[in-house]
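Archive entry: two folds, one per protein. Generate the first.
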Amino acid sequence: MTAVETVPTNLTAQQLGQLFQYTVEAYKTFQKFAENLPNPVARDLFKFFAIDERTNRDLLEMKVAATEGGRVRATLGPDLIFQELLEGEMSFRNSAEFLIGRERALQRRLRDYLGNATPADRSLLVYLESCKRSHVVELERELELIKNDPDWWKREDAEYRLVHGASPA
């Protein structure tokens, strides 16, 4: 059996642009959740996600500057799903499932890019893919909490409820 050798390739401008676009959109979404959710546990989670995405954006900008010397432009057109997500038209469960799906989709894309990445791109892709993996795990925890309490993201008493459970009615 003959092994097929894959030739490592650099990230293309289009790939970097897609990663950058996703990062900008994710940052805006996570930041809005961090600003609007009354639940302090969920709010802090989304604050950390926003920080991750800002760091990812900065790394991608540096990568673009190092490889192309130009800037990546992000289109900030309206996205109906994000409007529903941010304006509360989706249930918390649907919002969490949507975010998990979105993070997983990018994680898969990053894994695909890793398959034939050059050594110069490998570390950045590993870092970004690991970030997405951690977001999925944290969002899955939020989804489980939402399944137990559909208004979980509204709970201002989140820490109390985690420690003591729901107060008897």
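Generate the second and append.
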Amino acid sequence: MRLKSKYPEKIEYHSSSEWDGQTGGTAIVTDDRKIVYDTPEIYGGTGDGMCPDELFVTAILGCLNNTFLDFQRKFEMELKSLSLKGKATAIFDGSGYKITGVTVSGEVIVGEDELGTGERCVELMTEYCHLTRTIKDCIPFEYDITVREE
């Protein structure tokens, strides 16, 4: 079903990357915000910044979080807490690493009499997060997110 959206039909995201002269670098995104990344120590890096795989998982969690909040606002649901944890598993296949799955767990706490709406927001979050929609056919996702009232 094609949804009518109040958001732009097309949007672009930009980033640039500069090597730090050692084992990592700095990404510069919109409005000159910076993200420092590095190679983990186990692979010969200094580990001074975020590993790109951590950024990958963080991007997924951020997208899920923001998608949930979009639906929460539309339903005018009282939200008390939203916490997500993610894990990407990578396997070395003899020639290199490949991410073989992503697991997302978490807890949503909603106001009284909002349990059904909270559960629906979780369903919509997992269905409409654009990052997970894009990669779900090549990387399996598992979700374990509970919703409770308080």
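Annotation attached to the second fold: The helical segments are 52-75, 115-128, 130-135. DSSP finds three helices and six strands in the chain.
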